[in-house]
Amino acid sequence: MFKKCQDHLDSVHESYTEHLCVAVPIGLRMIGGGVAAILHGLCPAVFVRTGSKTIFSLYDELKSRTAKSVDPSHD
What we know:
mainly alpha; elongated; single chain; DUF6356; 75 residues; 75% helix
């Protein structure tokens, strides 16, 4: 497991702390967008574009980060 973790950190050129400081905010934004989408499903008048804006924003951010990565297919 440690080798897989280190391989991933190497592939994105980040230390553990750097990776944590990027991954946690992304995860929190995903959770926030998901909650907004659920609430929108329950009451269509609220959070009309929040879920899709979150998805597009994260996609753009991750796409630009992946372009800098040596191995974008690493999972």
